[in-house]
Structure formats: structure tokens, C-alpha cells
């Protein structure tokens, strides 16, 4: 899912010059790479002449354009774990395929037991709140369940408790709410045990 998100940042010229750290530091609620990193429970290493410190990405963004980084600090590392048996996917809804700010984006990382029950799940969304967010209520609902049509329908309803979309020039809050539910259902169906979408590693 991280490679999928990185491939959707801007256009080739922007991707060739930009950095993942820059995408994070922008603190945009629509930043493409932030969403999968949030689902991966990523940590940032911030360094300055005074030393280093670690902070979870979920705590780094304080609001649109606002972060916990001090003026003298640089983002020097991004750390996260990714297990071989996890499945993951990233979806972005925009007005076009390139140079588009996300109307809604969603990243999903999930693991299943041998009985096809959800043993671990992380869902993150962008452009639906002042910062990218984890869908904690939806995650809690899915744990221990098998993915059926009814489970996915209930997860869609639960998602409305996790997001607070606004209306702007790109979309209304109602559209974002509906689109978020559609992307969640699409993501869950794409990673069901009979599919072969998986998370291969870290950067």
C-alpha cells in the first residue's frame, strides 16, 4: 500500500524531487504517503544538534499545516514493522489520475487466522478530518470477525463514527462520507483470504 500511495503523489517530476519526509512535514490532511504510514503505525525520528527523539506519526500532526517538529529538527528516519502474512491496499479518490489532491484516501492493513478471522487490522483515511486519522471504532468492530457481506456493511456504518469530513471546493462532507464507506468496502473485499494482495516490506 505504501508503494501504491507513493505512485499517486503529484506527477513524475514531483516524485523525482520530493521526499517522504516532505510529504509528512506538509501536514496536509490529504497527504498521500501519510495515510499508509499511519496504518503501519509508523514512528518518526527527529534529529537536531541537541540529539534525537522518536514520535509516533499519529502524534506528529496537530492540525492542517501544524506539526510537533521544533524549528531546529529534521525528520531523519521513518520506522515501521510489516509482517509477511499481512495484506494491504491503498485507494485514492481524486478528480483525475495525476496532480490531484485526494478527495478521500484509505489505507488498509489486515491479517487473518487459519479460520479466516481478522486477527489484526489497521485502517487510516485522509481528507476526512483535520489530520489523517485511524478508524479505531471500525478496527475494533472487525477484530475477530470473518469478512462477510454483513460484516462489511456494518463496518461501513461504523466508519461514520471515525471520520469528520468537511465540505470544500473538491467535495461535500456528505460525498466524502459516502465515498469513504465505498472505499472501505472495496478495500476489505480486495484483501479477503482468497486474494493475493500483500504487504512485502518497509522503506
Automatic annotation (TrEMBL):
- FAD-binding PCMH-type domain span: 1-85
Q: Which GO molecular-function terms appear in the entry?
A: FAD binding; xanthine dehydrogenase activity
| E.C. no | 1.17.1.4
Coiled-coil positions: none
Protein's UniProt keywords contain Oxidoreductase? yes
| Annotated keywords | FAD, Flavoprotein, Oxidoreductase
Question: PROSITE patterns, alphabetically?
Answer: FAD_PCMH
Q: Which InterPro entries match?
A: CO_DH_flav_C, CO_DH_flav_C_dom_sf, Diverse_Substr_Oxidored, FAD-bd_PCMH, FAD-bd_PCMH-like_sf, FAD-bd_PCMH_sub2, Mopterin_DH_FAD-bd
**What sort of enzyme, by top EC class, is this?**
oxidoreductase
Q: What is this protein called?
A: Xanthine dehydrogenase, small subunit (Part 2)
Amino acid at each position: 500500500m505504501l508503494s501504491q500511495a507513493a505512485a499517486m503523489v503529484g506527477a513524475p517530476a514531483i516524485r523525482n524531487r520530493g521526499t517522504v519526509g516532505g510529504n509528512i512535514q506538509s501536514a496536509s490532511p490529504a497527504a498521500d504517503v501519510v495515510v499508509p504510514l499511519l496504518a503501519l503505525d509508523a514512528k518518526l525520528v527527529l534529529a537536531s544538534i541537541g540529539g534525537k527523539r522518536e514520535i509516533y506519526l499519529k502524534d506528529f500532526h496537530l492540525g492542517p499545516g501544524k506539526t510537533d517538529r521544533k524549528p531546529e529538527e529534521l525528520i531523519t528516519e521513518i520506522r515501521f514493522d510489516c509482517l509477511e502474512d499481512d495484506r494491504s491496499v491503498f485507494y485514492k479518490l481524486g478528480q483525475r489520475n495525476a496532480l490531484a489532491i485526494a478527495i478521500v484516501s484509505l489505507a488498509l492493513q489486515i491479517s487473518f487466522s487459519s479460520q479466516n478471522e481478522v486477527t489484526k487490522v489497521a485502517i487510516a483515511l485522509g481528507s476526512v478530518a483535520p489530520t489523517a486519522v485511524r478508524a479505531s471504532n471500525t478496527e475494533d468492530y472487525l477484530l475477530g470477525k470473518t469478512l462477510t457481506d454483513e460484516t462489511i456493511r456494518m463496518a461501513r456504518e461504523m466508519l461514520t463514527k471515525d471520520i469528520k469530513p468537511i465540505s470544500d471546493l473538491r467535495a461535500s462532507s456528505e460525498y466524502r462520507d459516502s465515498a469513504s464507506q465505498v472505499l472501505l468496502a472495496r478495500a476489505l473485499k480486495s484483501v479477503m483470504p482468497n486474494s493475493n494482495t500483500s504487504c512485502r516490506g518497509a522503506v
